[in-house]
Amino acid sequence: xxxxxxxxxxxxxxxxxxxxxxxxxxxxxxxxxxxxxxxxxxxxxxxxxxxxxxxxxxxxxxxxxxxxxxxxxxxxxxxxxxxxxxxxxxxxxxxxxxxxxxxxxxxxxxxxxxxxxxxxxxxxxxxxxxxxxxxxxxxxxxxxxxxxxxxxxxxxxxxxxxxxxxxxxxxxxxxxxxxxxxxxxxxxxxxxxxxxxxxxxxxxxxxxxxxxxxxxxxxxxxxxxxxxxxxxxxxxxxxxxxxxxxxxxxxxxxxxxxxxxxxxxxxxxxxxxxxxxxxxxxxxxxxxxxxxxxxxxxxxxxxxxxxxxxxxxxxxxxxxxxxxxxxxxxxxxxxxxxxxxxxxxxxxxxxxxxxxxxxxxxxxxxxxxxxxxxxxxxxxxxxxxxxxxxxxxxxxxxxxxxxxxxxxxxxxxxxxxxxxxxxxxxxxxxxxxxxxxxxxxxxxxxxxxxxxxxxxxxxxxxxxxxxxxxxxxxxxxxxxxxxxxxxxxxxxxxxxxxxxxxxxxxxxxxxxxxxxxxxxxxxxxxxxxxxxxxxxxxxxxxxxxxxxxxxxxxxxxxxxxxxxxxxxxxxxxxxxxxxxxxxxxxxxxxxxxxxxxxxxxxxxxxxxxxxxxxxxxxxxxxxxxxxxxxxxxxxxxxxxxxxxxxxxxxxxxxxxxxxxxxxxxxxxxxxxxxxxxxxxxxxxxxxxxxxxxxxxxxxxxxxxxxxxxxxxxxxxxxxxxxx
Amino acid sequence: xxxxxxxxxxxxxxxxxxxxxxxxxxxxxxxxxxxxxxxxxxxxxxxxxxxxxxxxxxxxxxxxxxxxxxxxxxxxxxxxxxxxxxxxxxxxxxxxxxxxxxxxxxxxxxxxxxxxxxxxxxxxxxxxxxxxxxxxxxxxxxxxxxxxxxxxxxxx
Lengths: 723, 156
Known about the structure:
heterodimer, A: alpha+beta, Aldehyde Oxidoreductase, domain 4, seven-stranded mixed sheet, B: 2 domains, five-stranded mixed sheet
């Protein structure tokens, strides 16, 4: 593989003094720049351990190909990151082509996660400096190559539209003509990046590169992989997590036209057929007797009770400022509350699927994944093969939201494919997808605050319990009882709290696997903290915006977004009866966001979100249209959770199954959304998940404004709001 | 038995049980993967195709129910005037994100525009609320349908 070859030669090629870039020749006269995106710890690679994780290849035909650790799942990464390169390299955005990165944890580690994965809204945060520097470096080397060929001063040359031009003579050479020579030029130690005033692409709503294929059916998702001879399988996994297959009667299933074989695993049964229609019919015809195992009587109430109990004991201290206990004792008013958020499914529009061909001594996989190296490693284990014998082809992702950071679907598919000759595509039904998801954790919070006689918070204390996804997914990330995801949004709040204490208790629920979800930790913490700040404002008899504002003197960026959102939303202006406005303010994923939601609560208790106004400071905006799209998207995702989202367990089984019992917001319920951006020279912050966490408390606070009823448990319960 | 179905203007022979949903005949038998599977029970609209110009959910449309009707899928919707306008508006408004549901969205929107060149908001709600988008592109879908309707008005 060309990339492996390049990486292995890195030590004897042309290394820059900053050690984050290597230039080398590519096959066919091209030029490759290999980048090392810095790791989260900020450690700089040394020349001994230079490990590039992204590659820009300039072909002798002038084509520019980017291979990088991040995947496209709708968030616009396949456009916004090429914009960084195109900007500095002086080429048109459409000249940059992307290739899905092959699995290689060493090569493609995400700089902020340390593993090859796309998540945590950090693609742009990790890419911002390295890709611009790489683009500028390549440009300087191309200019140097042209200057050498013409025997002129490089300063008399400049790059434009994929060409180097000599000012004096007007001569020009294309990048393709220069690529082979450029590879031999020394890598400049320092390059000058463009100032924001010089940006031609960054800051523009450049058109997405992936839209054309997504409007005519030609985009290829994992679900669309069709290696020759592929059979289709669908499966039933134990309805209770941890259960086993006791017996299977497959007589009727085998008689169905198109059914080829029945695969029995310890805890699942699959039907392999010529097409999904036959596979589903076969599955329905199976008579499976299950040994339900240890969790056969589990219910959501059991989980909630265990978490509630856990918050009575001390946990790991996530953040402490001043002395919250002492300040609480001196408070004029004490406000206490308990909050709960439910398990949630991902319900990606593309149900789980994975195509596998297990051959004698290797295994080939077709999948859309956010974590390709994890898929490779876990599939290799399931197949009993070394990782380098597992070939993984990545595809476009029909919704990630954290579900496709997991490799359980690939493992299942390998287990089934081991019993099948030739390739098999394992497609989960929607029911299987929802009932065997890995869920956003259930969390329980016990929170309190003390107010002085003016209503100002002088003490804040919060202890919450729930699953740590990081502890399972990335064990080194869980240290001293804490992980950065579980606590994000619960600590380092935007407000100036003099006495502040937050503890986290890790409790893993039995019989319900948990996983990342859009906004994960903040999807819980921002709901709790922003609802509770609203409770404090109410206890102090103050306006929710004014109350927050008074706590932001040390945080001008937070204050600016709050002011802007309130202004644009018409905060304080009268609303018809039954309507209310609610505000939320957060700093998570590196971006500041304020939202004002306007809701209407009907007599039957149903809630309609009419309008959402956002003010966002996400630092430098690379593509304003993408920022707007991501906020629209995150808001719909969070509003769906607030209004409908709940996975419940009864007798060990997940009670929801399809979009009738696990409802998603639809066109007729979609609020109008306004996005206002605050101009900022800071580096870009994360975007993809911010809207989701902010909207949930904004809705809950708006419901309070409309009805006087405080929602401390999600989702919205119409029975509580009926009037 | 084998069924002969007219899809995108050409006859296709499909040898499956008569109760097999059209969706799987398209995707798994004919390899036309633009039409997507989302729920299997007509709750999400990802599998929407046209049968004689009407938007239907192919996941619950059995192959033996089609007869001589003409099936149009996302792969050919651009050859219809309404479909071409909708696709253009989708591009203009950058509607898709992950894109998985968009084949179905475009098929529903094209059927709407073909039958109602000037849809009101309530018409858009009625025609489009059967199509779920998990990326929440609804705001843009609505705008794009209105843009496509405008371009119809201009006779474009």
